[in-house]
Amino acid sequence: MIEEGILAKVNAGEMLPLMEEFYTIQGEGFHKGTAAYFIRVGGCDVGCHWCDVKESWNAATHPPTDVKQIVDNAAKYSDTIVITGGEPLTWDMSFITSELKKRGLKIHIETSGAYPLTGQWDWICLSPKKLKLPTEEIYKKAHELKVIVFNQHDLKFAEEQAAKVNENCILYLQPEWSKRDKVIPMIVDYVMQHPKWKVSLQTHKYLNIP
Questions:
Q1: Cα 183 to chain center, whole Å?
Q2: Would you say 85 is a known binding-site residue?
Q3: Domains and CATH numbers, the chain
Q4: What's the pTM?
Q5: What is the end-to-end Cα distance of the chain in Å, rounded?
Q6: I need a labelling partner for 189 at 20 to 30 A (CA). Which of 4, 40, 53, 73 fits?
Q7: 73: which residues sit within 8 A by CB, 6+ positions away?
Q8: Does residue 3 sit in helix, strand or coil?
Q9: Which residues form the Radical SAM core domain (predicted)?
Q10: Residue 78 marked as a ligand binder
């Protein structure tokens, strides 16, 4: 049971259920290959069956952590910060992004977009999920659309999502890791036929890094 004072700070975004934080190389999407500090926040009810971080779903298993401490840790390592989850927009991101901005840091988010967009972002990677679709607002603001492809139907879903984003949004298809041997040939063929799309791979897994 979280005490009332801590709960109030969590609700205000001054504390967040921190699952893990680490310095690594961004492995996916537009910024792949870039050194970045990752802040993984617990809590997600989108429930993708193929999620490779299911341990992030239950926010109660991750301790509420003071945001200023998280920011202090992040500022030691990199000028590029990636906030991910779980689903980070479950929580109010206004305070943490304001504190990171005070340090002059570039802030990226990886989100399903299922909750209202809060915070100040230099880069928004929208990875929509069928079970809980994004809010209309985030389609207009996303810099990158990354659709995870598990089966053939996901290509149809990808096109439906691409029709909603802004014209400058970069479009990616990314194979679901456990199905990559089957899905990659399908994605390659699709991108060659529909060159508005690009292929995203989880290169950090090939590099054997977090």
A1: 21
A2: no
A3: 4-206 (3.20.20.70)
A4: 0.95
A5: 31
A6: 53
A7: 21, 37
A8: coil
A9: 31-210
A10: no
